[in-house]
Amino acid sequence: MPQTKRLRGPALLVLLGLLALGTVPSQADQTTSELDTYRASVIQIFVVGQSESYATPWQRPSPERWGGSGFFIGDGRIMTNAHVVANAKRILVKRADVVKKFVARVLFAGHDCDLGMITVDDPAFFEGMKPLEIGERAAMRSKVQTVGYPTGGEKLSVTEGIVSRIEVRTYAHSGADAHLMIQTDAAINPGNSGGPVVQDGKVVGVAFQGYNAMFAQSTGYMIPPSVINHFLVDVSDGTYHGYPELGIYDARLENDSLREYLGVPDGATGVVILKAMPYASCVGLVQRNDVLHAIDGVSINSDGTIKVGDEFLDYTILVEDKQIGDEVTLTIRRDGQVKDVKVPLTGWEARMTPATIYDKRPEYWVVGGYIFVPMTSNYIGWGRSEELAYYMNTYYRTVAEEGKTREQLVILSRVLKHPSTRYISYRDEIVATVDGKAPNDFAHFVELVEKSEKNLVRIEFEGVNVAPLILDKKKIAEVQDEIMKQQGITEDRYVEEQK
């Protein structure tokens, strides 16, 4: 199984928008001083935002209201979840010990790790506030307290739960990125997303997601200190870069015949490398059938885990603690010889990704009644067919495994009703070529059509059972304004400029 950018089925983990990790009131031994600290440190967040419509991308949906929690970490910074402030147009924050609400703004949003940082420009907001310190990872079966503003009341709430599992899993906000997370067996209620989970007065997690109630009861999750600290170090230079991708497909090394074939002696452990992904760190540095024994001197078990304290965790957490630009040393066995390989860490450098997109306008082009869009997880999430989702995942896997990629795939989404489009019906067809040329991305597709010297532009689609579309540029010029007016479309396109 690949160890970075893994493809997974529909995630059972779901964001609850505003998540509480517990409903059991904390014990009476909670001191007044601790509660006072929470009142002056844990923030209620009110958001007016606007999600994008990928079905009708020229329309802006009506604003929505939602909320969450956050906590003060010093230097005018408030930590919360990225999903609390994603697509936000206006953010207000309020302290439990002050009536007034203050205007806040987003400093950073890490959608791959679901962490965000906001601030308030008015210094009066921070007067007397006490920053919460980031602590160590909570141990299994230890008690933790979730502090925040769950739905159903305006007052600060402090609840308790027990740490019941620690593992690497997919974060629901991006739907594609896997990081370490901590599970609590406390019940889940809306309201606490972005709020701190504390132990002994220190932050040991950020509440962020839970299981859908139809699959599990009393299951909630928090982002652990290692991910929080990675985010804080990352943004310290003023830019959020994200996580490095080691980029290895691997397999367990538990089969005796495979071990003998690879020349692995008894007592040696590790995983066998199947492929280095073309757009990540290890490409050109490792080979198929290399045995990965260790990273930075930490031995990898033959089931792909390392021991951290009392837990066995996925070995990729050894890279999770690193930043893009750092270097790791892989100890590998190749052709019976053990050697060290230095690997400079990079991010995922291909634009094709299954991750959900936030804080961006959807790209589109309406030309002569035909609506073209790039293929994204967001578009597929708007009730598109399972076949389209399968195609995207299959194409992404090809990108990851082979490096054969166009930067974006282009889709003819649908055809608007108009006399000029009569008898022509297309739905979610994937563009293969424009006059025989494959578009590299959405902007290139628009350019190929518009700059074609031909009046009749031929667009071919994937699949032998889809007829080509012939765009008559002269006729389109005659009906374009009429179609736009008829459909209430004020802007025929939005195409993102590539840097």
Q: Point out poorly predicted stretches.
A: 1-13, 16-30
Beta-strand content: 35-45%
Rg over alpha carbons: 26 Å
- Helical run tally: 9
Level-1 CATH class name of the largest domain: Mainly Beta
**Largest beta-sheet details:** 7 strands, antiparallel
Strand order, main sheet: write it out: 30-29-28-27-26-25-31
Q: Note the overall shape.
A: flat
- Count of spatially separate domains: 3
What does this structure look like?
The protein has 499 residues and is an alpha+beta fold. It is 16% helix and 35% strand. A hairpin with a 5-residue loop joins strand 7 and strand 8. The chain starts with 12 loop residues before the first strand and ends in a 5-residue tail after the last strand. Residues 1-13 and 16-30 have low confidence and may be disordered.
Highlighted features:
single chain, 499 residues, alpha+beta, Thrombin, subunit H, Pdz3 Domain, N-terminal domain of MutM-like DNA repair proteins, 3 domains, seven-stranded antiparallel sheet, disordered N terminus
